[in-house]
Write a structure and sequence with these properties.
By secondary structure, this protein is α/β, with parallel strands linked by helices. The strands form two sheets. Strands 8-7-2-1-9-10 form a six-stranded mixed sheet, with helices on both faces. The longest helix has 19 residues.
Length: 305
């Protein structure tokens, strides 16, 4: 297997669990060092929350986001392979940017800690909702949104037949009922990727303007436009806008396949959510996931150096 047509992709929020990376810390000094670096960057014992919990604290967005980035970056560094192209789902875009040399790890983890807090504070608890709609057509969802009062947006284009809406809680639930089919209300603490996140977007913009961002050292596809970004200005603008805009994951993956010739996707980070979505987007693409020490060793053996 050559890595010339391989993409590394990084998961977003929802894949977290207490104990993430514990096996990495036991086996690899580099992982232990990165966990310590994360604590120093955010100014509190993030590693303790990741490794020991409690789960309700890890589920708080301001901790969840840096926790997932931490584990994803640790796994990426330990796999010691360079792909042809990278991308990340929502929060995972920050992991992809670290992998591409566009963001320093300490800056990325500080940013996502603030991003999580800003997103949490943008909407009071209980006033927003995110609902996955399964087996429905985009046009039907858009029609139902247009017929409803209140703020509801298409938040995620995850895969064919897998869409997520977000917005004001009752309005979002009305849209889900109107569309019919199977729906799942997501256990998140805020309605991400909708207009209600605009206050968080503006707060994050000031932090993004204050840090050094480099042009990606390899092809990187962003969420908000589903296209390759090549300059630091494009990276900064994409990170700002994705807070309140849709995650265009399906078109992003299809464009990577069409433009870069990608035929293999390696998911790097906790869980296997993206691997499942990729199966629905393109059944022909090969898929590999790296989520812990065991799968890391398997990937090291499978991927050429």
């Amino acid at each position: 297997m050559s890595l010339a047509r391989t993409a590394f992709v990084f998961p977003g929020q929802g894949s977290q669990e207490v104990g993430m990376g514990a096996d990495l810390c036991r086996k690899f000094a580099a992982a232990r060092d990165l966990y310590a670096e994360a604590d120093a960057a955010v100014g509190y014992a993030l590693s303790k929350i990741v490794l020991e919990g409690p789960a309700d604290l890890l589920r708080q967005t301001e901790h969840t986001q840096p926790a997932i980035l931490l584990v994803s970056v640790a796994l990426h560094r330990l796999v010691e392979r360079t792909p042809a192209v990278v991308a990340g789902h929502s929060l995972g875009e920050y992991s992809a940017l670290v992998a591409a040399g566009s963001l320093r790890f300490a800056d990325a983890i500080t940013l996502v800690h603030k991003r999580g807090r800003y997103m949490q504070e943008a909407v009071p608890a209980g006033e927003g909702a995110m609902i996955a709609l399964l087996g429905v057509e985009e046009e039907a969802v858009r029609t139902a949104i247009a017929a409803q009062s209140g703020v509801v947006d298409l938040a995620n284009f995850n895969a064919p037949g897998n869409l997520v809406i977000a917005g004001e809680a009752e309005a979002t639930r009305r849209v889900a009922r109107a569309v019919g089919g199977k729906s799942v209300e997501l256990a998140v603490s805020a309605p991400f990727h909708c207009r209600l996140m605009e206050p968080a977007e503006e707060r994050l913009a000031a932090d993004l303007a204050a840090i050094d961002i480099s042009a990606p050292a390899m092809p990187l596809y962003d969420n908000v436009d589903a296209r390759r970004v090549t300059t630091a200005a494009e990276v900064r603008d994409g990170l700002k806008r994705q807070v309140s805009r849709s995650v265009l994951w399906t078109p992003l993956i299809r464009r990577m396949i069409a433009d870069e010739g990608v035929d293999t996707f390696v998911e790097i980070g906790p869980g296997k959510v993206l691997t499942g979505l990729l199966r629905r987007i393109d059944r022909q693409a090969k898929r590999l996931s790296i989520a812990d020490a065991e799968s890391l060793e398997a990937a090291r053996a499978a991927l050429p150096a």
